[in-house]
Amino acid sequence: MSQAVAQGPVDAPPLFRLERANVMRLAIAQALAGANSTVIYATGAVIGDMLAPEKALATLPISIFVVGMAACTLPAGAIAQRHGRRAAFMIGTGCGVLGGLIGTLAVLQASFWLFCVATFFGGVYAAVVLSFRFAAADCAAPERRPRALSAVMAGGVFAGVIGPQLVTYTMDLWQPYLFAATYLGQAAVAAISLLVLAGVRLPLPTAAEAGNGRPLAVIARQPRFIGAVVCGVVSYLLMNFLMTAAPLAMKFCNLPQQSANLGLQWHVIAMYGPSFWTGRLITRFGASKVVATGLLFTAASSAVGLLGIQVAHFWATLILLGVGWNFGFVGASAMVLECHRPEEKARVQSLNDFVVFGTMTFGSFLSGGLLSAYGWDTVLWLSFPPLIFAVVALLVASPRPLRSGSAA
């Protein structure tokens, strides 16, 4: 009876209108939440460099951010499967508010380890935010799922403006505590996102969806799923690997912090801007071709970075990297949607994100030490072997006797 009451308001408006309202709110929340990730990426290594007991630990706060993302994905999936996605969204966004407040306190107290706690909560928030894309697909008709998924990701375009500008205009506001006001502002933006998400109306899990479905081991052995996970891992791993190191590399090259902030702004815009078209491209050309294009853009970003260490080289690297991440990650996410039944979606999607973010952790931990010990060029060269591996996995995952089987 309570299930019927919970589902009633969802069935009342026309389905398409409800879908649009949900996608719009999720896109707005995505835009606001992007400030969390951008602030941490723009300032995490710099604050780490100021507070860390050893310079090699400068990028540890960003690595802890990624650990928070990995640690949260499976519990968030379990909460979503039992209590609905909105409950997971509210808890995760609350962690974003808490992370901003702890970050402010850490800067005020000059506590490196407390700052790492703050970035962990920021990672929890970021992981939940990335499940917005699957929530949008859930409430759309099958033929509109790629577009709904990419429409929510497009909300991140505004994150590319909100986050860096928040850093630029607040970094010196609370003297002499550099970036203290920035993290306070990030907490306020997360609180606004919490209010936006309160209006999202998603159906509660049905009894079938709360059931077991196929074992994860069976689902995970599908070549299509393996290819999707590998491409998602490589796309996100290299984006995080290079973006973590880039602001610190710019600092080592005596380039101003404002240039790093602006470079990250264009990077985030490039990450999410293509989402206005990615869904249509997936529908027209297929997810595999879109993923392959993303891997090509990522390779181009590393190649451009190897050409020099001027501001323009860093900016071009970050922009190409953002476009590569969008095509690779959104395309891989669309491939995941092809690999599960409705009752399996929460577990399969959270497993995918757990593997993606868990693997990212290694790249994030390595980037700071590699940058300090071997330099920016070495970081760039190391991006090519994973790209080759992803291309091979994509070819294996796409055995396409496209026309012979379907034409008959």
Gist?
The protein has 408 residues and is mostly helical. Helices cover 81% and strands 0% of the residues.
Would you kindly provide a written description of the structure presented here, covering whatever features stand out?
It holds the Pfam family MFS_1. Residues 224-408 form the Major facilitator superfamily (MFS) profile domain. The chain crosses the membrane at residues 26-48, 60-80, 87-106, 112-136, 148-171, 183-204, 225-244, 264-283, 290-309, 315-339, 351-373, 379-397. One of its GO terms (molecular function) is transmembrane transporter activity. This protein has helices at 2-11, 15-51, 60-83, 85-109, 112-130, 132-138, 145-154, 156-170, 180-197, 216-220, 223-252, 257-272, 275-285, 287-305, 311-337, 345-374, 376-381, 384-397, 402-407. It has a single domain (11-398), classed as MFS general substrate transporter like domains (Growth Hormone, Chain: A, Up-down Bundle). The protein starts with a helix and ends with a helix. Mean pLDDT is 81; it is low at 1-13 and 401-408. It has 408 residues and is mainly α. The chain is globular and about 55 Å long.
